[in-house]
Design a protein that fits this description.
This protein is mainly alpha-helical. The chain is built from 11 helices and 6 strands. It has helices spanning about 1-15, 45-55, 75-80, 85-95, 95-100, 105-145, 145-160, 170-180, 185-195, 195-200, 270-320, and strands at about 225, 230, 235-240, 250, 330-335, 340-350. It has a two-stranded antiparallel sheet. Helix 4 (about 85-95) packs antiparallel against helix 11 (about 270-320) and helix 6 runs antiparallel to helix 11 (about 270-320). The longest helix is centred in the C-terminal third of the chain and has 49 residues, at about 270-320. The chain is elongated and about 130 Å long. The two termini are about 85 Å apart.
């Protein structure tokens, strides 16, 4: 029959066909020979079996959804990369230059403007200090007489020698005189050369009792070698009650003057006070100039640090990475002050 012929042909083909080895790891199916469960298939059954074993490619798998994508241009990164070290060095030399290097032009303008303003302020206040100092020196040259001080020192020495009730020995006299004028010859040498030491000795805000005050032309009261201080009945001065220091004079209370500087002085001079005020004003201008120079140094340091951080942020943006500045957010919020609710701002940093 047709069925028997088909089975015989299948048996013959299975014997004559070469054996094919399965790939490693593949599971081999049992041989269909002499299996009573296998039946001959009609052409229609064979087609249906083939169709069921073939995967259906008409239905495509759903596409993969990409939430966020970034493209990185590596060629651009190589040309646009900014060295944080170079940016820091540039801004340390010239504040704002490193920011311009990383295209942060707003901050570059701010740092450079601050630099120019501080430098201009330091130069201006230094020039003002120098101007006031020169004015004070000119005032001293016009109103201070070294000859007047020399005459006072000679009269005082003679007075102390003649006043044996106050000075008992030559050694004590020398001690008194040295206490008044620690280094007289050095002072006269400085006055002759118009050195800084001379201008510091004739008036200083830190010296409570100036033994060189008698060199000012308006110094009162006058002093002679016979009676010491010449004080009239209506004078606003009086000799010190300290018998061990007859060279001191006091200003009577109620007279015009600074009460803190009215006792135990070598004399009183309004010109000396004006000179001290001029020197103090000059010093204040110099001090402001010095503070501005300190601020310049701080501006260089802050600008250098900011330039390095800005360079890193710039490079992070090239790689589409989130920078530190992207995590900072300034937003408006309602703020309860206790009495009312008002609009305010909060600075948030996301970690």
């Amino acid at each position: 029959s047709a069925i028997t012929d088909t089975a015989q042909k299948a048996d013959t083909n299975s014997r004559s066909s070469p054996v094919q080895l399965a790939p490693a790891g593949a599971v081999s199916a049992p041989a269909p020979q002499n299996n009573p469960a296998i039946k001959a298939l009609s052409p229609g059954d064979s087609a249906r079996a083939t169709a069921s074993a073939t995967p259906d490619t008409s239905k495509k798998a759903p596409p993969v959804r990409i939430e966020e994508s970034h493209s990185i241009d590596f060629a651009k990164n190589l040309t646009e990369y900014r060295s944080p070290r170079k940016a820091m060095l540039l801004s340390f030399l010239v504040p704002g230059l490193g920011q311009a290097y990383v295209h942060s032009y707003t901050k570059a303008g701010i740092f450079f403007t601050v630099e120019v303003a501080l430098a201009a302020g330091a130069i201006w206040y230094n020039s003002q200090g120098k101007k006031f100092n020169n004015q004070a020196k000119t005032f001293a040259d016009e109103n201070y007489s070294v000859d007047s001080l020399r005459k006072y020192s000679q009269n005082l020495y003679t007075f102390l020698v003649n006043d044996y009730n106050k000075i008992d020995t030559a050694e004590a006299l020398a001690a008194y005189f040295t206490n008044i004028f620690p280094d007289t010859q050095s002072f006269f040498d400085a006055a002759k050369n118009k050195s800084g030491e001379f201008y510091a000795d004739i008036g200083s805000a830190t010296v409570v009792r100036n033994s060189y005050v008698q060199g000012w032309k308006d110094c009162q009261p006058p002093f002679n070698s016979q009676s010491g201080y010449v004080i009239g009945p209506d004078s606003s001065f009086s000799v010190s009650n300290d018998t061990s220091a007859p060279y001191f004079v006091n200003r009577i209370k109620g007279a015009v003057g600074n009460p803190l500087l009215d006792s135990n002085q070598y004399g009183f001079s309004n010109d000396e006070r004006r000179y001290i005020d001029m020197i103090s004003r000059s010093k204040s201008q110099y001090d402001i100039s010095q503070y501005l120079i300190y601020a310049l140094v701080v501006n260089h340091i802050v600008s250098a640090i900011d330039a390095a951080l800005s360079a890193k942020s710039f490079n992070d943006r090239l790689l589409n990475k989130e920078t530190m500045w992207d995590r900072i957010n300034l937003r408006q919020e309602l703020v309860n002050t206790g009495n009312a609710t008002v609009f305010g701002y909060s600075l948030c940093l996301r970690f």
